[in-house]
Design goal:
It is a single chain. This protein has about 260 residues and is an alpha/beta fold. It has 9 helices and 7 strands; from the N terminus they run βαβαβαβαβαβαααβα. It has one domain: NAD(P)-binding Rossmann-like Domain (Rossmann fold), CATH 3.40.50. Strand 1, helix 1 (about 20-30) and strand 2 (about 35-40) form a beta-alpha-beta unit. The structure holds NADPH dihydro-nicotinamide-adenine-dinucleotide phosphate (NDP). NADPH dihydro-nicotinamide-adenine-dinucleotide phosphate (NDP) binds near residues 96, 147 and 192. This is Gluconate 5-dehydrogenase.
Length: about 260
């Protein structure tokens, strides 16, 4: 029997950017743990396919709520729709994100704003909308998916690191504002994880060797590697943990 401190059965969770990759794996973990899960992304067809994949994964029901996390109007409508479908949201995972790499001097205005919108403004918009609903209820768990790059930066990735570093501080600020009202906010910080987002990096032999060599665990992370940390952060086991980022990176943040 699993420990009651980790019991999240019957909770309702919204995971942004869960049509693939890390978000889909986190959603699968929540379904397996007995949560009702709402999948999000911009492409309804891809979301429907992801929901089909999760249908047999566990006891929890799966719904889809397509909306663009960078657009305030879509976020308001999307969160309302999510609560209509599955009831009050107990758990929000702000996972949607993008990565663009280029030396700063070559980085365009458009790409800068796209990254800020997708990685930072999204967490503010969805977090604010969900928190407005959680606050009167007096409870809720929010997890912002940060990054190894919330802590360290390498050449060619400064704008991404800036968004993820800021997301770490937004996480602490959400904890400061909403913690007193029963809403617990933390971050999850993946290291290098094999997903579509990192496919070009894994295809680059030198980069691949660098990741393996610099990660104490000696390998790329798998999306499933993140699930245990998420379940800790959304369960009663972490009730006195606030404003922290839990890095799941095979040890890389410690040695870079
Ligand atoms: P993927 O590119 O594989 O998936 C991104 C997800 O976000 C997709 O479901 C995508 O769906 C969704 N998404 C993107 N933009 C929007 C938007 N505007 N509105 C709604 N949904 C959106 O990325 P990963 O799974 O690799 O990454 C997930 C998170 O983890 C990101 O925040 C990323 O920064 C972070 N991370 C990833 C690491 C890695 O090594 N992979 C390392 C550290 C952090 P769609 O395009 O259909 O809208």
């Amino acid at each position: 029997m699993s420990h009651p401190l980790f019991d999240v059965t019957g909770r309702t969770a919204l995971v942004t950017g869960s049509s693939r990759g890390i978000g889909l794996a986190l959603a699968r973990g929540l379904v397996q743990a007995g949560c009702a899960v709402m999948l999000n992304g911009r492409d309804p067809e891809r979301l429907a396919a992801a929901a089909g994949e999760l249908a047999e994964a566990g006891p929890g029901p799966v719904h889809t709520v397509p909306f663009d996390v960078t657009d305030a109007g879509s976020v308001t409508a999307g969160v309302a729709r999510a609560e209509e479908l599955a009831g009050p949201i107990d758990i929000l995972v702000n996972n949607a994100g993008a990565q663009l790499r280029a030396p700063l001097q070559d980085f365009s205005d458009g790409d800068w704003h796209r990254l800020l919108d997708t990685n930072l403004t999204s967490a503010f918009l969805v977090g604010r909308e969900v928190a407005r609903r959680m606050l009167p209820r007096g409870h809720g768990k929010i997890v912002n998916v940060c990054s190894l790059q919330s802590e360290v930066v390498r050449p060619g990735i400064a704008p991404y690191a800036a968004t993820k570093g800021a997301l770490k501080m937004l996480t602490k600020g959400m904890c400061a504002d909403w913690g007193p009202h029963g809403i617990q906010v933390n971050g999850l910080g993946p290291g290098y994880i094999a997903t579509e987002l990192t496919a070009p990096l894994r295809a680059d032999e030198r980069f691949d060797a660098w990741v393996r060599g610099r990660t104490p665990a000696g390998r790329w992370g798998r999306t499933e590697d993140l699930v245990g940390a998420l379940l800790f952060l959304v369960s009663p086991a972490s009730d006195f943990v606030g404003g922290q980022v839990l890095y799941v990176d095979g040890g890389m943040t410690s040695v870079l």
